[in-house]
Amino acid sequence: MPEAIRTDTLPDTMGAAGFPISFKVTSGQVPDTEQKDQAMLSTAIKSRCVAVLLAVVCASASAQESKHPPQFLRDPILGLRVPLTGIKLDAVPEDVRALCEQMADNETWATRQWIFGVAKDSTATYYLTNGYSKRRTPTPDQRPYLQHVDGGVYKVSGTECHGDPARETFAVRDPGQIPREVLQELAQDLVTRLARAAGGTQGLRAQIRKQRIDFHRLSPEMQEAFKPYFQRAH
Predict the structure, then answer these.
(1) 65: how many CB neighbours lie within 10 A of its CB?
(2) Per-residue pLDDT at 90 exceeds 60
(3) What is the predicted pLDDT for the residue at 15?
(4) What was the pLDDT predicted at 17?
(5) Spatial separation of the C-alpha atoms in residues 102 and 154, rounded to whole Å
């Protein structure tokens, strides 16, 4: 049986393919005569607190610790399981991984990442990845392996790398961050690589049907790329 997610020993916010979560909550006195502004401020603070709680919950759920090496990877969008034995995915090149702070090795973690999608434009190469990390020197009460659930999208341009959580990137769909054409190309490449990892198109359809993926929760780019597989899966 899979081991339960532990939230009491979460990794640092940077490293081990983690994405930093930062926030500020400010407070101040509002004059009594400005009741409307005070009410608006109260609403804003409540909204911010809800966002903070959600961020903490998401951080806790974005990785799973284990005593044993992972037996499979999860694709960073649908969450399909890809067995590591005989895996048919390409590893992220070491020079690329070293550029990207979230998946580079550090004093605490050694990380392995695999490519689930690649896209290019005139200025950068984009990688959709996921993998796992291993503590270099775990203490007796620490589980050495950390399996990442969400994965990331990394933009590599020259010697610079910027990464964001994969599902968030496709949910936000900010063209100022990543062009829509790149998102479409990443989605199509994800389908191609998952089909290859599953042993063909029929294998991918079977995995989608087995894990009951909700098509309507996917981004428009992912819906377009996976539509043929969902049509035959139901």
Answers:
(1) 22
(2) yes
(3) 56
(4) 60
(5) 9
